[in-house]
Every structure is written in C-alpha cells, then in structure tokens.
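Bumping with the actual sequence this time:
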Amino acid sequence: MTDNGGRTSPVEHGFPHLETVRAALTALFRRLTAEGIGAYALSISPAEAAFGPAEDLHLGAHRVASAVVRALRLPDARMVVSFRPMRDAATVELTAGPEYFVEVNDRFRLHRRDLAAALSHEVTHVLLHRLGLGFADTAANEILTDTAAAFLGSGWLLLDAYREDGLTHQKLGYLTPEEFGYVLARRARYFGEDPAPWFSSPQAYEAYVRGRALADREARRAPLAAAGAGERRRYARARRTGSAPPRGAAYRFGRDGDGEGGGDGVLRVSFPCPVCGQWLRVPAGGGALRARCGLCRTVLECEV
C-alpha cells in the first residue's frame, strides 16, 4: 500500500477513480451476494483499532491485526506483523494461508494510531485473494482493495489516517479522501451506520462530507423518485424523444431491437442502482413504480 506522506507528496483530491470505484462495488456485490455483504453490517470500532504508546509493540500489533481480521470475517487467518524501513506503508505476502506475513513501515512503531489503517488495506488484500476477486490491472486492483475495505467496515480507518497541514501531508491507500468518503457514505446508507463520529482527523471528516454529497446526489438522480423537479423535467423531455440528454445522464432509453428493450416494443429506461451500481431496466412512462435490484435486493422508488 502506498504512503503519500511527507512534504513533497501533495495529496490528490476529487474523484479521478470514480468509474473504477463503482465497478468495484458492483464486483463486490456479485462475488459476495447481498446476503454475504449483509454479514459486514458492523464496522471495526475505534476502541478495537486503538493502539496506545504504553502497549507492547508486538503484542499490540498482533491484537490490532486480529481485530481487523475479525472485522473482515477472516477468523482463520493469522497475521504475523513485522516492522522494517520501507517506502510503502505496508505490504502483505499472499499465500494459501492460514498464516500471512505483513510488513509495515518502521514509522508505525511510533505513529501507532494509524497502524490499524495500514493493516486494513493489507488484510483486505487477503480477503479478496481468498475470494478470488480481483481486477487485471494492478492500479485498478488497488482501487478495488480500498473500495472493499471501506464498504466492508474497516476502510474508515484509511480515511481517518488522512491529515494535511501547511508542512506535512499523509494519506494511506489509493483512493482520494473524497472517494473514501463516497464509498463510506454508500455503506452508511446501505447499513444505516454513520461513521462521522469516529473521525479524529478534521480533514478526514471534511472529505467524508464531500464524498457523501456526491453519493447523496446519485441517490436523487432520475428516474429515482427523489430526483429534484428540474431533473425530473429534463428526464421527461428525454423520455419523450427516447434518448438521454447528451451530458452524461445516468440513464438511457431503448425499445425492442436496440439492445435495451424486452422484445415487446415498450420504451424502457436503464439506470444504475445507487447502492451496488448494477444496471436496472424498467418500462418508462408508467409513472411511479418500485424497482427491486436483483443484485443487492434494494427496493427503489422510481418515477419513470
């Protein structure tokens, strides 16, 4: 895992990896199913992740690693944590298990508050390895790992490790702070669990708020019933012409024979589920209806 720390490493912001993040969420639901995802309803707690200066270094590192393993539901995985000088924050050797060797940067001997964050990314690598879930591209696979960590309950630690002031920068992981906030907000909506009180870093909380704002906008996009009046009017105009607006609308129309219809000539609208990203297709023009996502089982109130 990369460590974007030091004066010469400014932190990237915004949403440059958003499409990969969305693809990662869909892949996670497809691999684990809605029932499997439901097992991750409780995040690792701040108390479980805490590692104070008075605690024995190696016993404390083992305790924190075990807490992350439990949070990610890998009870038969044992983490052997060692410290050494290195460029990255941490690395893990992926094997068949059950024992995995994690090396973490020597600086975590003293900066212990972020050890659980570094371990969160590496233990998620182990989880995805066991699930056989990965993207072919290395960079995309790291985005998948951070996304999975955040959505499955341990990745809020990675965002909380983000701190920035006039002299120093620190960010762990490959997502931007706002992207971490975006995934955590989607998790919060799905499980009804708000991570906001857990952030000790003011910058992390601000990034969460920015990411949550984007997730909230996506939950109010047409044809969802929560869309604002202006967007509903744009959607209605697009429906009349049978084509989505040209500026990146998150829906598209189609009839029989063009790859979108159901074979009966009925105009249909396709749009991504705001929870898992799976594309749904329903008849357009029928007014209010409920659409159930076949992947995450979320019931969506729509105005089509």
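The tokens above came from a reply further down the thread. The first strand starts at residue 78 and ends at 84.
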